[in-house]
Amino acid sequence: MIRHTVFFRLKHPHGSIAEADFLARAMKLGPAIPDVRNFKCVRQVSNNSEFDWGLLMDLADQAAYDRYDAHPVHRMFVAERWQREVEAFVEIDYLVGDEPGEA
């Protein structure tokens, strides 16, 4: 399984209507894309990170990840919202179940 994580900072002020609208739209990604499992939007609470928000999801394998990445709903969100409203981000994808010490 692949755990896809994206941590980001928006151009919008904290608590703004624009921030709430972006996050509400982002939350629609999980249910709209069949291969996405365990979709979550999380808020950063530590002062040790430059990012304020995170999107987390699980995908069964590389083929599921590729379908997610190419899905029209994902592509449209990136083009119409992400590229315009996200100030900075980091994307990290992990293999889950292949950690050292697991059988």
From TrEMBL:
Gene3D superfamilies: 3.30.70.100
Protein's organism: Variovorax rhizosphaerae
Coiled coil: none
Pfam families membership: Dabb
Domain of life of the source: Bacteria
Residues making up the signal peptide according to the UniProt record: none
Lineage: Bacteria, Pseudomonadati, Pseudomonadota, Betaproteobacteria, Burkholderiales
Protein name according to UniProt: Dabb family protein
InterPro entries: Dabb (IPR013097), Dimeric_a/b-barrel (IPR011008)
Ranges of residues in domain Stress-response A/B barrel: 2-94
